[in-house]
Design brief:
Structural class: mainly alpha
Largest sheet: 2 strands, antiparallel
Distance between the termini: 27 Å
Helix content: over 70%
Order of helices and strands: HHHHEEH
Oligomer: single chain
Strand content: under 5%
Strand order of the largest sheet: 1-2
Shape: elongated
Number of helices: 5
């Protein structure tokens, strides 16, 4: 095997290059879907809803549009969570494949803590998305379409459930900020670790 690798040095370099290329593609896709959900939610809540309410003349009319937009945002969040879960599996696989003697100083504690925190955030996002899906079904059951608009069957119950929906959506947004901060920290840490001295346990 060593002789074969020595005769084909270019072949030995293809695997790291392929892994780097795959990582770039994966994280580009992950950040793109995250940006659509996170940025879309931020822009819609802070800009579109106030303008739409002012132009349409009522919050109820704007709510009919928001109902459909929320479904799309939740869809992109679902795709993002699926990619986050895939990243968790990749992080676990890479951690198990690294030779302990080749790990940078401080790698075990920092890497494990970051992966566990990341997993916790992903689980929270997924759980809250399930709660939002359940609330969405409850809200749809309290709305009766009419020719010109919609009629709320039980206003007090509807607005209470809608308030819960807004709070949970905001909590998801905050978790998104935390997840992004940990992702940037992890990527920077991985980049810096390549320049750190290697701890050789044999010594």
């Amino acid at each position: 095997m060593p002789a074969s690798n020595a005769q084909h040095p270019e072949g030995c370099q293809r695997t790291p290059k392929r892994r780097l290329r795959n990582s770039l593609v994966f994280y580009t896709l992950l950040l793109a879907t995250f940006a659509v959900w996170f940025g879309g939610f931020t822009f819609y809540v802070s800009i579109v809803i106030p303008i739409g309410t002012d132009v349409l003349g009522s919050a109820r009319a704007q709510g009919e549009i928001t109902q459909q937009v929320a479904d799309w945002l939740n869809l992109f969040l679902l795709i993002t969570i699926a990619l986050m879960v895939s990243e968790q599996w990749l992080l676990w696989r890479n951690a198990t494949q690294i030779d302990p003697s080749q790990r940078p100083n401080g790698w075990p504690i920092a890497n494990t803590l970051n992966r566990r925190t990341n997993l916790t955030l992903v689980v929270l996002l997924a759980t809250l998305l399930l709660v939002l899906a359940w609330l969405n079904l409850q809200l749809d059951g309290m709305i009766q379409p009419t020719q010109r608009s919609i009629r709320v069957i039980d206003p007090s119950r509807f607005y209470r459930a809608h308030q819960y929906y807004l709070w949970i959506s905001t909590l998801q947004w905050v978790i998104g900020w935390i997840w992004l901060a940990f992702l940037i920290t992890r990527l920077l840490s991985n980049r810096q670790s390549t320049n750190q001295p290697i701890t050789n346990e044999a010594n």
